[in-house]
Specification:
Elements (H helix, E strand, L loop, with lengths): L3 H7 L2 H9 L6 H7 L4 H5 L3 H23 L2 H8 L11 H13 L6 H26 L4 H24 L2
Helix pairs in contact: 1-9, 2-9, 5-9, 6-7, 8-9
């Protein structure tokens, strides 16, 4: 159920979309203003460390999205504790193999992954960022810029993960 290559590739999406989204010609200038970011702060950062840690954290996000966008993994987790599950010749092993042969590719499309990525962005990223922004006394524009980024990012990550069989 887990395709490490798909997770490694999708973990690049936050960096790529971030380079576009937070570019001054897109939302970068507006974000800098609402985030109270200055050019001096931007220049003083260790970008190699930021990009490296971002990639590692993005891999964790991809691993989490994997279970959201690929439904077949749920069957695996439901049956995991059944006696004989690890044995392909057992009753449960044969049931699982038959199930995966019949339904293993259901809903494994880029479009389906995008749908679930958008849902994850709205139901996970928006509340987390919104709550943080409220306590940081940031406004709607700050929430909208950052949540929009995560919705687009989760959508593309979900699409890649779901479609890459």
């Amino acid at each position: 159920m887990i395709n490490i290559v798909a997770l490694l590739v999708s973990a690049l999406v936050p960096l790529v979309i971030g380079a576009i989204w937070y570019n001054p010609k897109v939302f970068g200038t507006a974000w800098m203003k609402v985030a109270e970011m200055t050019e001096e702060k931007m220049q003083s950062a260790n970008m190699l460390a930021i990009f490296g840690v971002t990639y590692v954290l993005s891999f964790f996000l991809a691993a989490g999205l994997n279970s959201v966008v690929i439904h077949q993994g749920h069957v695996y987790s439901i049956l995991l504790g059944e006696p004989g599950f690890g044995d392909p010749n057992s009753e449960i092993g044969m049931y699982f193999a038959d199930f995966m042969e019949k339904f293993g590719d259901n809903y494994r499309t880029f479009r389906h992954g995008i749908i679930h990525g958008v849902i994850a962005g709205i139901t996970l990223a928006l509340p987390v960022l919104g709550i943080n922004a409220l306590f940081e006394r940031k406004g709607f524009k700050y929430i909208a810029i950052n949540t929009g980024y995560w919705i687009v990012t989760f959508a593309l990550m979900g699409g890649i993960i779901c479609a890459w069989k």
